[in-house]
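Example 9 (inverse folding). The structure is encoded as follows.
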């Protein structure tokens, strides 16, 4: 679904390059709403920023920069005295600068879009168009960020990064819980309608797989992040989160919960349990030295397994928020504030006249003529927070100006707190309809 709708974004990007490219690309892509194609375009922008940030961390890039003639400490010879400190263009500090400029761009867009009610607002053109100009602004901002004196930049921006990263983790929790509910509801509905053993087997297999991975993760955490003598805090985190996921799973099948949510079950609990164990692993990867098995495998020019998995989950969450529309469970999971409204409101579509020369139709139609499908300001705030999360993930949640160390007590507590919050949010989605029977959660 995301790949198909992504063609609309490609068409919009091609329109920045000229009418010929626009016509060619638009003729190949399917019709989709303006709200969806716009969100996918911003997602593409964010993905490109992530790729550029990853390139600055490429192994051996620092040594290769020494061969560039105009770099300081270069082994090459170039006439003149003009030299550039190319060390600023690689490493964790470079990631900070790239994400700083990108975050400011989304904050600026959020401020510009305050109060927009429909696509009839003059500012809609800025939101849904001018892609070439917006990409140039981001590129210019990134270049300008490399001229910021180091000073206290890294340590100060790290504080903003940790706060913003935590906020995005909360948003990611909401999206994952919404995904778990939507997935289970869809498959349970398919099974109830068809009474097919295939759907029943798929539900059972998915649930058992998630629980098996969760159990495997718990065992590995005990093996690699605890010791018989010591590491009491790590033991507490693992054991406490194990108790929480078992309790949440038990609550999901209580008769009172099933009465108000017949399709609630262990599949949602399994997905949430697996994610909680991932967050526990992520937190322990920033724990104290002797209890941290991942310290020795991390360095300034490579990614560890935890960072790669974090980026994969991040990409999936951002794409899910773009292509997913709010459903009946969105009010319960509070994702209705993040996802676009289902259906189109006052869209304009231009159909061709069906002539022999060919039929033309609007490939990207406006579905926000009577009202926006999502909050444009909040969307850009979420993407600004997503940028900060990328920054902290790529830099392993510690100060790039400090000594190389995965120990970061603050980030450890941020991640472990988010795991508890994840269980709390999920349990709320289970018990809320039973606690407040007069309230409409549909």
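The amino acid assigned to each position is listed next.
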């Amino acid at each position: 679904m995301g790949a198909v709708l992504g063609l609309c974004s490609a068409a919009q990007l091609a329109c920045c390059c000229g009418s010929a490219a626009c016509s060619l690309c638009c003729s190949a892509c399917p019709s989709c709403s303006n709200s969806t194609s716009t969100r996918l375009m911003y997602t593409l922008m964010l993905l490109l920023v992530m790729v550029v940030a990853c390139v600055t961390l490429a192994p051996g890039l620092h040594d290769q920069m020494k061969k560039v003639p105009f770099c300081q400490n270069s082994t090459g010879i170039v006439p003149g005295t003009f030299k550039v400190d190319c060390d600023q263009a690689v490493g964790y500090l470079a990631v900070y600068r790239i994400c700083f400029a990108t975050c400011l761009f989304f904050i600026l867009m959020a401020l510009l879009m305050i109060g927009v009610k429909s696509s009839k607002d003059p500012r809609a053109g800025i939101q849904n168009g001018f892609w070439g100009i917006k990409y140039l602004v981001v590129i210019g901002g990134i270049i300008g960020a490399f001229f910021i004196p180091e000073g206290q930049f890294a340590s100060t921006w790290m504080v903003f990064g940790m706060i913003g990263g935590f906020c995005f983790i909360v948003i990611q929790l909401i999206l994952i819980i919404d995904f778990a509910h939507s997935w289970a509801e869809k498959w349970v509905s398919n099974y109830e309608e068809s009474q097919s053993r295939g759907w029943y087997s798929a539900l059972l297999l998915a649930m058992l797989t998630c629980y098996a991975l969760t159990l495997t993760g718990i065992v590995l955490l005990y093996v690699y992040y605890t010791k018989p003598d010591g590491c009491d805090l790590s033991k507490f985190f693992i054991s406490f989160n194990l108790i929480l996921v078992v309790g949440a799973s038990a609550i999901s099948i209580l008769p009172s919960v099933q009465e108000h949510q017949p399709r609630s079950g262990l599949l949602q609990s399994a997905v949430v349990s697996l994610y909680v164990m991932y967050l526990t692993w992520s937190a322990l990867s920033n724990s104290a030295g002797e209890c941290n098995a991942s310290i020795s495998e991390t360095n300034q020019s490579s990614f560890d397994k935890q960072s790669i998995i974090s980026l994969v989950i991040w990409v999936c969450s951002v794409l899910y928020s773009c292509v997913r529309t709010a459903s009946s469970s969105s009010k319960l999971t509070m994702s209705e504030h993040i996802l676009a409204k289902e259906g189109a409101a006052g869209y304009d579509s231009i159909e061709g006249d069906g002539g022999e020369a060919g039929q033309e139709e609007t490939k990207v139609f406006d579905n926000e003529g009577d009202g926006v499908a999502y909050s444009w300001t909040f969307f850009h705030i979420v993407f600004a927070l997503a940028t900060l999360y990328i920054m902290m993930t790529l830099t392993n949640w510690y100060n790039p100006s400090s000594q190389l160390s995965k120990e970061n007590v603050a980030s450890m507590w941020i991640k472990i707190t988010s795991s508890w919050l994840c269980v709390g949010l999920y349990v709320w989605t289970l018990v809320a309809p039973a606690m407040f029977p007069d309230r409409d959660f549909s």
